[in-house]
Every structure is written in C-alpha cells, then in structure tokens.
Write a structure and sequence with these properties.
Elements: H1 3-16, E1 32-35, H2 40-56, E2 61-66, E3 75-81, H3 93-101, H4 107-118, E4 127-132, H5 145-159, E5 171-175, H6 180-188, E6 197-201, H7 216-222, E7 237-240, E8 247-252, E9 258-261, H8 263-281, E10 287-292, H9 297-305, E11 311-314, H10 318-325, E12 330-334, E13 340-344, H11 346-358, H12 361-375, H13 384-398, H14 402-406, E14 414-420, E15 428-430, E16 435-438, H15 442-450, E17 457-462, E18 468-474, H16 478-495
Parallel strand pairs: 2-4, 5-6, 5-7, 10-11, 10-12
Antiparallel strand pairs: 1-3, 2-3, 7-8, 8-9, 12-13, 14-18, 15-16, 17-18
Catalytic activity: N-acetyl-alpha-D-glucosamine 1-phosphate = N-acetyl-D-glucosamine 6-phosphate
EC number: 5.4.2.3
Family: Belongs to the phosphohexose mutase family.
C-alpha cells in the first residue's frame, strides 16, 4: 500500500471513526469486548491490523468476527482469526491493544511502527473476511450457505445408515437465543427431512432480545431453563448462544427439575462414540480430550477411569484448547460452557480413509461412518450447529435419550460467581488457571476454605473481557458448593480490590 493510500486511511479514521473515549480497552481471550458505543474506532483499527496480519502471513486470509458472543445486546466485540481458523497469535494481542488505544494523532506513527516491528510486506495483496452476529450495532448479517449444505449433507448421509431405536427420538427442541444460529436452523430445517424434527424457539421475533434470559450461557450459568421455550418432561433441548459458537443441552424431568448436559457431557459423548468407531475400524490412533479448570471433576474422573482416554488441562479460552488438541491424532476439546469441537490430524484422516477402502467388511463400514462424521465436523472454530449434528448422530447411533446420556456419571454440584474489582490484572494464575499466584495470600485462603468441604474444589481467574474475577466452586452438595463459592468470592473482594457490595453468603 503506497504512503498516499495510508494517509487516506488515517484521515478516514480521524474523520469517520474517531476515538471518542479514554476508556482503556484490552484484547483478551475473546478479543475486544465491551459496550458497543466504545468500539467503533476499535473495529476500524482492527481492519488495519487484519490487513497487516494478512501480509505477514503472505497474503493468507485473516478473519474479523464482530460479536460479543453470549453477552447481552448492548455489548459488542471484535476479534481476529488466523488463517487456519485459530484465534489470533497470542504475541499479537499486545499489538492489537496498543493500536486500539492510541490517540487519533498517534495512529499513523503507531501503525508504521507496527509494520516495521512485524516486518510486513505492504506490497502484498491482503485478504480479510468479515463476519458478524445479529446485534443492531453490527452492520452485516452473514450466512455461509455452501458450508452448511456440506454439514447437513454429511448428517443426512450418516443418519440414513443408522436405525432410530432405543430411547432416542428424532424430535429436538432448540433455544436459538434470539441470535444467528437459530435463524440459520430455521432456514435449513426443511432440508433435514425425517432425519431430525426441529422445534425452534427464541428466533428473535416478538421482541426477543439477544441472549436475554435465554441461550447457552444463561442456561449454563443460571442453571435455569430459558424463557420462551415450551417444555415436556424428558424432552431434550439444545440451547445455542447468540453468535452460534456454543451449545449446551438440558431437559426437565417429570417434577420440573432441570438437568444440564453441558460441554463436559458433550465432550464425553463424542469421545466415547469416536472411540467406539476407531475400535470398530481397527485404527490405532491416539485420541485425547482437552478440558479447562471449569470441567466438572466428575467428568474428568469418568474420562480417565471409565473411557481410559487421556486428559489435558489448559487455560480458559478456545485458542488454548485448540492448540492442545492438535497434539493428538484425534483431539476432542470442549469448555464446560459448550464451546468446542473435534480435531483430526492429516495422518488420522489418511489412515481412516485407507481402512474404508482396504479393510475388512465391518472395518470398512465403521471407517466410512467415521469419515462422514469428520465431514460433519467444523474443525477450525466453535460451531454450535455442527456440534448439534455431532451430538444427535452419537445419540442416535447408541439409541440413547437424555436420561441414558446423563447416567454416564453424576456431576459434582457447582456454582459460578463473579466479583467486580478495580483492576482484573491484580489477579494472576498458573497451572492452567487452577492456582492463584497473586495477590499474595489469596491462594492460601482459597485452600483453607476448600479444606472445609467434602469433595471441595475452587479456583479464581480474571475475566479476559471485563474488570471482574470469576469464581468456580464444587462440593458434594449444592448447598455446600453455593456456600464455598460465596466464601471464595468474599476472599477475592477483600484481597483483590473488590468494588461495590461485598458478596453475601447464601441463607
């Protein structure tokens, strides 16, 4: 890009997208995420950075995703996606933060400094793709028709080979969170034929607000069913989040109690089914499962002791899980919030394809099913619709309803809380965020509190998007988990600069 073109870019930034706030905005786990009215200049500048990043990557495509995921509609965000579908390289997060926060007058010099720093060849042609969710503060609503035709086609092909039996039924209720995922399902549901009968709720009509009292994050954190969904006992419900990258399942029993099937449950279901297919086709491949500290302790025990599958624990954030999953031939990763997928190495795909052509009859059948299962998988990024079809296929193949799925293991009761603090950077952690290293003394206090509970476990971590500290606690009863979480929240408030009202213990 010639200097004259850059000068036009900087002038346009000053005139059309000026920096109007002195609020410091940091690129975190989910990119930039804050109130939408603070982001206009940030989004424009991330367009500049995406062009630079593309040129550093020899002209390969960089993605810009404008979304605040599960946050409510007044919020928005922007994040960059690297060419292979991974989150932005961690070393560039500081660069993004620097570019977002400089004054308009310093934008030109800072950009030139970054170009030299990363050694970008500005003569190369850049490629940038942009995607957005359905918020009013987003400009474009993107649907990738061909991609979902591939996913749905693979789903229908594999389901036509699987008889429907046992406790499994083809009816699935879906909470669309008034976002993009539910609307997309509404478009493609007719093409599913008899393979899956979707009953859709919260599609954005009748004044429904994005993620408000609905969606995967609401269901997971509040442990309550979303508003706007009709329920029948034992009917499985899939709840998406607003931008369609997370999914959890749940059902109500005959006493109207809700039972959550979160990312841990999805991961164990998929890992178990893939293990079954690998065994049937005779493929000697290393399958592993990647979790974060938020994974329920009971799920980790089930995976390692019952499924005999190795587990890797990493920091929160899909980029960390994705990287660790690449170390396996087949890597299954899900955060407890329902964000995840399955990765297959090139070697694994080659071996499975060879078995599908040259193996014994039953081995070929299993390998062919697994190849179609791979075709149904979005390996580059969290995709709630792809994950939905993976779950439905695994349940159908096993003849399982939600009760059988739930019976695999019993979750330890847990509670998540958050504490508003002056500066989230006051909290530092290690050991995949399971141990707090600062402020001094906080980890010791957490361990003292945990020792008072049977099956107790707790950790704290700073949010990647706002000045809050997230608290997680487990114990043998819900009452104990609630109390432990509140006690840890009080310790955070007292020792890490809490703001507002001090957390209170449950009655």
């Amino acid at each position: 890009m010639p200097p004259s073109s850059l000068r036009v870019v900087y002038a346009f930034a000053r005139e059309m997208h000026p920096k109007t706030s002195e609020v410091f905005i940091q690129y975190g786990t989910a990119g930039f995420r804050t109130k939408a009215n603070l982001l206009e200049h940030v989004v424009y500048r991330m367009g500049l950075l995406a062009v630079i990043r593309s040129r550093v990557k020899n002209g390969r495509t960089i993605g810009i995703m404008i979304t605040a995921s599960h946050n409510l509609e007044p919020d928005n965000g922007v994040k960059l996606i690297d060419p292979d579908g991974e989150m932005l390289e961690q070393s560039w997060e500081e660069i993004a933060t620097r570019l977002a926060n400089v004054s308009d007058n310093d934008l030109e010099s800072t950009t030139e400094q970054i170009i030299k720093e990363v050694n970008a060849d500005m003569a190369l042609k850049a490629s940038v793709f942009i995607g957005m969710d359905t918020r009013n503060t987003s400009i474009i609503k993107c649907y990738i028709i061909g991609y979902y035709e591939k996913i749905v086609g693979a789903f229908k092909n594999i389901r036509q080979k699987l008889p429907v039996g046992g406790e499994y039924t083809t009816t699935l209720y879906v909470d669309g969170a008034n976002g993009v995922g539910g609307k997309k399902l509404n478009i493609i549901k007719k093409s599913l034929g008899d393979e899956l009968d979707l009953v859709l709720y919260n599609l954005g009509g009748n004044g429904g607000k994005l993620n408000l009292n609905c969606g995967a994050d609401y269901v997971k954190v509040s442990q309550q069913p979303p508003v706007g969904v009709e329920h029948k006992p034992w009917q499985r419900v899939a709840s998406l989040d607003g931008d369609g990258d997370r999914i959890v399942y749940y059902y109500l029993d005959d006493k109207n109690n809700m039972h959550l099937l979160d990312g841990d449950r999805i991961a164990t279901l998929l890992a178990s089914y893939i293990t079954q297919l690998l065994s049937a086709c005779g493929a000697q491949l290393r399958l592993g499962l990647v979790q974060t500290a938020y994974a329920n302790g009971a799920s980790t025990q089930y995976i390692t002791q019952q499924l005999k599958v190795p587990v890797t624990c990493v920091k929160t954030g899909v980029k960390h899980l994705h990287h660790a999953a690449q170390e396996y031939d087949v890597g299954v990763y899900f955060e407890a919030n329902g964000h995840g997928t399955v990765l297959y190495s090139a070697n694994a795909k080659t071996i499975i394809a060879k078995i599908a052509e040259e193996g014994e009859v039953e081995q070929r059948k299993a390998a062919a099913l697994l190849l179609q299962y791979i075709d149904m998988t979005n390996e580059t990024v969290g995709d709630a619709l792809s994950d939905l079809f993976l779950v439905e296929t695994a349940l159908c193949a096993r003849g399982q309803g939600v009760r059988q799925w739930m019976e695999a293991y019993t979750d330890l009761p847990c509670r998540q809380l958050k504490v508003t603090v002056q500066d989230r950077n006051a909290i530092s952690t290690t050991d995949a965020e399971r141990v707090c290293t600062s402020p001094e003394g906080l980890q010791t206090r957490i361990e003292e509190l945990v020792d008072g509970y049977s099956s107790g476990r707790a950790f704290v971590r700073p949010s990647g998007t706002e000045d809050v500290v997230r608290v997680y606690a487990e114990a043998d009863t819900q009452q104990s988990a609630d109390k432990l979480a509140a006690e840890v929240a009080q310790a955070v408030f007292d020792m890490a600069g809490g703001v507002g009202n001090r957390p209170v213990l449950p009655a």
